[in-house]
Specification:
EC number: 3.6.1.9
Structural class: alpha+beta
Subcellular location: Cytoplasm
Number of domains: 1
Bound molecules: thymidine-5'-triphosphate
GO cellular component, one term: cytoplasm
CATH topology: Maf protein
Shape: elongated
Strand content: 25-35%
Family: Belongs to the Maf family. YhdE subfamily.
Largest sheet: 8 strands, mixed
Helix content: 25-40%
CATH architecture: Alpha-Beta Complex
Function: Nucleoside triphosphate pyrophosphatase that hydrolyzes dTTP and UTP. May have a dual role in cell division arrest and in preventing the incorporation of modified nucleotides into cellular nucleic acids.
CATH class: Alpha Beta
């Protein structure tokens, strides 16, 4: 996507305008639920980091996404997020294809893994951020279940190769922590950071 591409204009009502620096439809929907006026702008700059610690990586990538847009819009509140899935020291990104998605699900089957989402908010050069962690435990999956799910393609655009908010919920036995964090936008943290940047959320 081109630099500075406007993807969509969402609710832009009164109050302080917010830019969501994310192409993720999940983040758009969840931020919309907060009643915050915002529009979506994605920098298109590649985010990369040599960091291998999942918690620090999530925070770092969220910062890179936010800064890339904030440079062009210094007076607007910019919010970005990044989700990283980690299992036993290994990082699982978005699977390349059905076969890799099935391999990811084999890794996650019957195990507890960690989902980290970093959130960064920048306004007028002031940056704040945080990282939320949720532990997700998968059922022990049969090969048939794994291949059935991988074939749906639902996991292809998602870190870890599953979407807990859709059919992927059938893979999950237990969630410890903020559910919205697994979907990619930890609402408690988001609300705290936006309010800290002077944005009104639900009238406060
Ligand atoms: C584990 C999991 C991840 N995800 C999603 C959340 C994120 O959108 C995605 C992780 O990729 P990210 O790189 O965090 O985000 P993105 O590429 O979708 O969007 P952008 O970089 O423009 O902000 O995986 C789910 O929707 N459900 C899940 O259960």
């Amino acid at each position: 996507m081109g630099r500075g591409t406007v993807l969509a204009t969402e609710v832009v009502a009164g109050g302080r305008e917010v830019i969501l620096a994310s192409g993720s439809p999940r983040r758009r929907e969840l931020l919309g639920n907060l009643g915050v006026p915002f529009r979506v702008l994605v920098s298109g700059e590649a985010e990369d980091s040599p960091e291998r610690d999942p918690e620090r990586l999530a925070g770092e990538l969220a910062g890179l996404k936010a800064r890339a847009v904030a440079r062009q819009h210094p007076q607007t509140v910019v919010i970005a997020a990044d989700t990283v899935v980690a299992t036993g020291g290994e990082l699982l990104g978005k699977p390349e294809d059905e076969a890799e998605n099935a391999a990811f699900l084999h890794r996650l089957s019957g195990q507890t893994h960690q989902v980290y989402t970093g959130v960064t908010v920048i306004v007028a050069g002031q940056e704040t951020g945080g990282v939320e962690r949720t532990d997700v435990t998968f059922r022990s999956l049969t090969d048939a279940e794994i291949h059935h799910y991988a074939r749906t393609g639902e996991g292809l655009d998602k870190a870890g190769g599953y979407g807990i908010q859709a059919l992927g919920m059938a893979l999950v036995a237990r969630v410890d922590g903020d559910y919205s964090n697994v979907v990619g936008f930890p609402l408690g943290l988001v609300i705290r950071l936006l309010r800290g940047a002077g944005v009104t959320v639900w009238g406060e």
